[in-house]
């Protein structure tokens, strides 16, 4: 008693064992169940990757077909859930709505919340993966005052999300295959990243025996901050603020990021674990070039600013010494914007994707044995003292 390892920010503490994701930050390696992220991004799709993360192996053809079909069968949300949205102001941040409605899902599935039963855990996982795009799109539709779209199960996961986001009852919505592919890739690149802040939050909440919907809503809350999932929205706001790609203008912002008296940081730069490069950022940059190229937007002003900013920062001693590189979210916002996703939805898209990572970790923890997470502290308050006498 009384002897603890003091590790604020958990920079040197492993809190669990896990077989899902491997990261070598020095070498820029990211493997899901052993498979490199770039190979998955180029050859797999989000639903297949979800199966891999959740169950540990790539599915056979038949397993894939069944899994995908099961997800499609669960895309609708209970009609009563639409009423939750109406309680929010129209201009509510979609992340605020998402935290609420996902936690609220538990109220609809009381009969399947026995977390000791594998089958019930599996159906909760399927429900979450299937319903997240529906709920996310509902947040957007509510914001802009358009009717909610029911999911269309003739579409695949990414297409369905685009349809629910952008379709409206007045005209036929044509899926742009470039957008759908890019969306699927964004989902894949954000799917899991071992014990990051939100995943650790999900595990900690789950270690109390809380139901999976409550745990995922805790994860969404942790993801929201600008140091984590909120970075993609913050990157675009930063590029807006920078405004033009002239050398001296960009240099001014780089200098501000280096100034310790200025709270400004280069958003989309730096990572706790990656000290060489973020392998997701590499694929994301390629996707960005591809999407904007195919859309004839290769000279998009924000893309130009981002590329120049990256160049200038990577040559600067401050960033070199601290091993700060662009992370996954440096380019994701530019792609999302090109697809038509508004900036306040970027972190919501991240949450849709990370749900599979969160639920896979939760399921792994519940099925392999765990203790309640209970960090200790170094007490810095008063020593014992007597309550003053009243006169
Ligand atoms: N701009 C300027 N300086 C930075 C930045 C940045 N983006 N990131 C780190 N630094 C500096 C920091 O000031 C510190 O300098 P010094 O040693 O002189 O005090 C040094 O680099 C180490 O930084 P740290 O804050 O101790 O590093 P951390 O591991 O605690 O934080 C981070 C990691 C990702 C929160 C941080 O790099 C950051 O705030 N980046 C910007 C936000 C961002 O892009 N987040 C998304 C991360 S990837 C997706 C996700 O996880 O959701």
UniProtKB/TrEMBL annotation:
It comes from the Bacteria. One of its GO terms (cellular component) is cytoplasm. Belongs to the citrate synthase family. This is Citrate synthase. GO terms for molecular function: citrate synthase activity. Keywords: Transferase, Tricarboxylic acid cycle. Pathway: Carbohydrate metabolism; tricarboxylic acid cycle; isocitrate from oxaloacetate: step 1/2. It catalyses: oxaloacetate + acetyl-CoA + H2O = citrate + CoA + H(+). It comes from Modicisalibacter muralis. The keyword Transferase applies. The lineage of its organism: Bacteria, Pseudomonadati, Pseudomonadota, Gammaproteobacteria, Oceanospirillales. It holds the Pfam family Citrate_synt. The active site is at residues 271, 329. GO terms for biological process: tricarboxylic acid cycle. Signal peptide: none annotated. CDD domains: EcCS_like (cd06114).
């Amino acid at each position: 008693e009384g002897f603890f390892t003091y590790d604020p920010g958990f920079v040197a503490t492993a809190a669990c064992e896990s077989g899902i994701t491997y990261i070598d930050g020095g070498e820029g390696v990211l493997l899901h169940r052993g498979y490199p992220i770039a190979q998955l991004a180029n050859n797999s799709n989000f639903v297949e990757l979800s199966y891999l993360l959740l169950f540990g192996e790539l599915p056979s053809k038949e397993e894939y077909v069944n899994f995908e079909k099961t997800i499609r069968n669960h895309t609708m949300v209970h009609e009563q859930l639409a009423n939750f949205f109406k309680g929010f102001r129209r201009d509510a941040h979609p992340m605020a709505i998402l935290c609420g409605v996902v936690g609220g899902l538990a109220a609809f599935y009381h009969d399947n919340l026995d977390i000791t039963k594998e089958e019930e855990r599996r159906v909760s996982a399927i429900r979450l993966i299937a319903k997240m795009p529906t709920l996310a799109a509902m947040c957007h539709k509510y914001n802009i005052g358009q009717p909610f779209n029911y999911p269309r199960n003739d579409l695949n996961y990414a297409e369905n999300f685009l349809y629910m986001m952008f379709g409206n009852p007045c005209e036929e919505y044509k899926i742009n295959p470039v957008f759908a592919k890019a969306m699927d890739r964004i989902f894949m690149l954000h799917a899991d990243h071992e014990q990051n802040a939100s995943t650790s939050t999900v595990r900690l909440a789950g270690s109390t025996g809380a139901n999976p919907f409550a745990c995922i809503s805790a994860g969404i809350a942790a993801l929201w901050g600008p140091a984590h999932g909120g970075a993609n929205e913050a990157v675009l706001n930063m590029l807006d603020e920078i405004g033009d790609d002239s050398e001296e203008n960009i240099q001014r912002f780089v200098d501000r990021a280096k100034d310790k008296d200025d709270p400004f940081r280069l958003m989309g730069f730096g990572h706790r674990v990656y000290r060489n490069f973020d392998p997701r950022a590499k694929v994301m940059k390629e996707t960005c070039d591809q999407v904007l190229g195919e859309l004839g937007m290769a000279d998009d002003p924000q893309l130009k600013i981002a590329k120049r900013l990256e160049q200038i920062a990577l040559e600067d001693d401050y960033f070199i010494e601290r091993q700060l590189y662009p992370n996954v979210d440096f380019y994701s916002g530019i792609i999302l914007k090109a697809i038509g996703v508004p900036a306040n939805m970027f972190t919501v898209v991240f949450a849709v994707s990370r749900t599979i990572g969160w639920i896979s970790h939760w399921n792994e923890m519940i099925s392999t044995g765990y203790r309640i997470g209970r960090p200790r502290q170094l007490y810095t308050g008063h020593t014992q003292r007597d309550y003053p006498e009243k006169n």
